Amino acid sequence: MALSIGVDVGGTKIAAGVVDDDGAVLKTIRRDSPATSQQAIIETIISVASSLKADFPEAETVGIGAAGFVSSDRSTIAHGTNLDWTGLDLGEAISQGVGLPVVVENDANAFGWAEVRFGAARGKANALIVAIGTGLGGAIVVDGRLVRGAAGFAAEIGHINVVPDGRPCGCGQRGCLERYSAGTALGVNGWELARFRPDYAARIIELSGGDSNSISGKAVTAAAREGDPAALECYAQLTHWLAIGLADLCAVLDPEVIVIAGGLAEAGDILLEPTREAFTRFLTAGRARPAIPIVLAEGGQAAGLVGAADLARQA
């Protein structure tokens, strides 16, 4: 049995674990992420990985799922997002500290790979995995291989353009899918309703502490679970654009399955049912092609470190 150490590095936490070749997690460690200090991030990753190596000396590799753009060398952070590590050769730094070969992957690629190997897309050679949280990310697998692209930046699906000159995005562009289909967008939808139709959006405002300027995606989701029509309208807007983005991607990729992960996936059928209905309408040659199911991820909180560990083992 081959063991690998997987590390999932986010803006608020670092989770690490020892993973076997069946995707089972044998032990985990969690630490707060010292996001403001590059050296502290490196030291924390080395600490958790070294601790796991001490308990499982047979571990052969370390895989790191990292937020940001990871270069094609699968070691260097070309551009950081939530963490201070742009330009850092993270793989080399961790390898020197732990004494094992290290492979670095984009965090969305890592959890997406876990879904393909061990989760909702297992057994599928062609899959699209979409993570919907505060932002929108994803992973693409074609013919059993993770698509990284020439520079290593492939699968930034949140930044395909769906509304020309639309809402401004943190990437510097306007009208990105992320701005209409992520948790932040759900809060914006609720804020717009509350601004122009406050009586209609009364329940959303109430769940936001009575402050229409503090409406979040969580408040909208809570109201939607109660069947609130304004909240369900917010979801209808979000799933409309999500379905357009998914249909556009399927016209290019032709996957066997679409897996939805991330915090917003916890809304379940409130998210899935309208997305599936709209997706069927927007899908090119929908009647001619085999059905493309849209399903929820199965990997849970550990998917990122499991996928990172498995990718490192395979490398």
Automatic annotation (TrEMBL):
Q: How would you classify this enzyme at the top EC level?
A: transferase
User: What GO annotations for molecular function exist for this entry?
Assistant: ATP binding; glucokinase activity
Keywords of the record, alphabetical order, are: ATP-binding, Kinase, Nucleotide-binding, Transferase
Domain of life, per UniProt, equals Bacteria
Record-stated family: Belongs to the ROK (NagC/XylR) family.
- Name one process (GO BP) from the record: glycolytic process
EC numbers, comma separated: 2.7.1.2
Q: Which InterPro entries match?
A: ATPase_NBD (IPR043129), ROK (IPR000600), ROK_cs (IPR049874), ROK_glcA (IPR004654)
- One Gene Ontology cellular component annotation held by this UniProt entry: cytoplasm
Instruction: List the Gene3D superfamilies hit by this protein, alphabetically.
Output: 3.30.420.40
Q: Which gene encodes it?
A: glkA_1
- What protein name does the entry list? Glucokinase
PROSITE patterns named in the record:
ROK (PS01125)
